Amino acid sequence: MPSEIIAIQFGQCGNQIGDAFWRALCTEHGIAPDGTLSQEEIIAHDLKRVFFYQADDAHYVPRAVLVDLEPRVINSIVNSEYRSLYNMENIFKAPQGGGAGNNWACGYGQGREAQEVLFEMLEREAENSDYLEGFMMCHSIAGGTGSGMGSYALEKISDRFPKKLVQTYSVFPVNKQGEASDVVVQPYNSILTLARLIEHPNCVVVLDNTALHRIASENAPTAPSASSFALINSLVSRIMCASTATLRFPGAMNTRLINLIAPLVAYPPMRFLQTDFSNRYEVYRL
């Protein structure tokens, strides 16, 4: 029986790369933006249930929880063509809508205040799963929500789901030599989040924002900023799709998350993995 994985997306960065990931999964599995199977279903025996479940009306719904302390990115997702794909009960926006102000402590504190609502969503998704193997978290370690609230969630997931695996896709901040970050407290956010990443998840996939920006600038030097970010999100989604492909399609090896993690993380503190694959980007077209 295939295992199931619940995705958790924190903050602007986590929700943007998460949205790109779900769009890519829909394309790979022949799922239309409204969750129905398209006319040309790609593979009849793929394992959609790893990341999707079927609602009462038979359309596919992502096993995903979307969290942000300011509404802009989530509003853009729920107003996009994929608005019918997500379960709206699994979307959390802070009532104040002011965000965390790139402050780790603010995100952590608001995570504590919202823990009952957040874990009600996670426990509902867990109960809806037949064989839940673990959680996959998307976030940035440099901002406020992804770092602070993400850190709090990692601590509590370890307490509430001690036997489940946790894998994170963590975006590490841009670090150009000789240039300071626009966010003054970014080093503090990163260090405080790293302390939780060292302790709690089973595997951390490191996404180097510096390298991602370099790839985008090399392949789309004249592209506007929005297009560059779209290219970066697309690249990250391809990394995520490639690393989970053996879970989602029939095969003899690495058909479960533990089979992927165990050979790569031989010693628990050495859980930080770096990604790379050939032919990783396309020529940008205006």
From TrEMBL:
It comes from the Eukaryota. InterPro entries: Gamma_tubulin, Tubulin, Tubulin/FtsZ_GTPase_sf, Tubulin_CS, Tubulin_FtsZ_GTPase. GO terms for molecular function: GTP binding. The keyword GTP-binding applies. It is found in: Cytoplasm, Cytoskeleton, Microtubule organizing center. SUPFAM superfamilies: Tubulin nucleotide-binding domain-like. It holds the Pfam family Tubulin. GO terms for biological process: cytoplasmic microtubule organization; microtubule nucleation. Residues 48-251 form the Tubulin/FtsZ GTPase domain. One of its GO terms (cellular component) is microtubule. Signal peptide: none annotated. Keywords: Cytoplasm, Cytoskeleton, GTP-binding, Microtubule, Nucleotide-binding. Tubulin is the major constituent of microtubules, protein filaments consisting of alpha- and beta-tubulin heterodimers. Gamma-tubulin is a key component of the gamma-tubulin ring complex (gTuRC) which mediates microtubule nucleation. The gTuRC regulates the minus-end nucleation of alpha-beta tubulin heterodimers that grow into microtubule protafilaments, a critical step in centrosome duplication and spindle formation. PANTHER family: TUBULIN. Belongs to the tubulin family. This is Tubulin gamma chain. It comes from Parascaris univalens.
